[in-house]
Design goal:
The protein is of the alpha/beta class. The chain has one domain: Vaccinia Virus protein VP39 (Rossmann fold), CATH 3.40.50.150. About 35% of the residues lie in helices and about 20% in strands. The longest helix is centred in the first third of the chain and has 22 residues. Keywords: Methyltransferase, S-adenosyl-L-methionine, Transferase, Ubiquinone biosynthesis.
């Protein structure tokens, strides 16, 4: 368990109740790699490769180590049922996962217990966490679902310890993303209907400004692309989705 504590939620609420309800209904299928979260299961190794590289670079970790986060505290905001929390725990981190849907937290706790992992799962707002508690803060495919993006990033920044590292990923607001991630993916059943709202997607330029307002400097974003030959992979093409680091200024 981490030493993270909860305080009274501060600032602007960031949880959209309708989003929490939508994802809460999917909780039972979260760990089914062939179910409604199949796309996340395919995406997770790509995101983890980026995160591992960022961890090694930022914390000067040994690339050969299986536990590069040993002795460090990690937060996954919008953790779902723990697809990222569990790998972070295996990397040695004391992990806290927080999510807007109580059903997701229940599923995450049950799965972690079955895996023998001690992960501190919380239901509620990121802003309710005590400030400065985490060396690594992640929010993957989350910012497009919150009620107030600036408030959400401010809460993430507040949770970050001095010298810490943040990792964010999100769909880009492009015509390609609208066609493939919203219309095609939902129509073909690759993503549950109602998951994505194109107007809520964030461009890299917008995210850079939002992060600057939160006192963070954005690193060089990497695209997450798809091709028939390689499937989902990191690339220079950010037309669909991208992942990026941020650090305190």
């Amino acid at each position: 368990m981490t030493n993270a504590t909860m305080t009274e939620p501060a600032g602007v609420p960031t949880i959209r109740p309708e989003e929490a309800t939508h994802f809460g209904k999917l909780a039972a299928q979260w760990w089914d790699a062939t179910g409604s979260s199949a796309m996340l299961h395919r995406l997770n190794p790509v995101r983890l490769a980026f995160i591992r590289e960022a961890i090694d670079a930022h914390f000067a970790a040994d690339p050969a180590s299986t536990r590069p986060l040993a002795g460090r505290r990690a937060l996954d905001a919008g953790c779902g049922a723990g697809l990222l929390c569990e790998p972070l725990a295996r990397m040695g981190a004391a992990v806290t996962g927080i999510d807007a849907a109580a059903e997701n937290i229940a599923a995450a706790r049950a799965h972690a217990e079955g895996m023998g992992l001690a992960i501190d799962y919380r239901h509620g707002e990121v802003g309710a966490l005590a400030p400065g508690g985490f060396d690594l803060v992640c929010a993957l495919e989350v910012i497009e679902h919150v009620a107030d993006k600036a408030a959400f990033l401010a809460a993430l920044a507040a949770a970050l310890a001095p010298g810490g590292l943040m990792v964010l990923s999100t769909p880009n607001r492009t015509p390609q993303a609208r066609l493939l991630l919203v219309e095609a993916a939902e129509r073909l059943g690759q993503v549950p209907r109602g998951t994505h709202h194109w107007r809520d997607f964030v461009t890299p330029e917008e995210l850079c400004e939002l992060l600057a307002d939160a006192g963070l400097e954005m690193g060089e974003p990497r695209g997450i692309s798809w091709s028939p030959a390689r499937g989902l992979h990191l690339s220079d093409n950010m037309a669909l989705n991208y992942i990026v680091t941020a650090t305190p200024v």
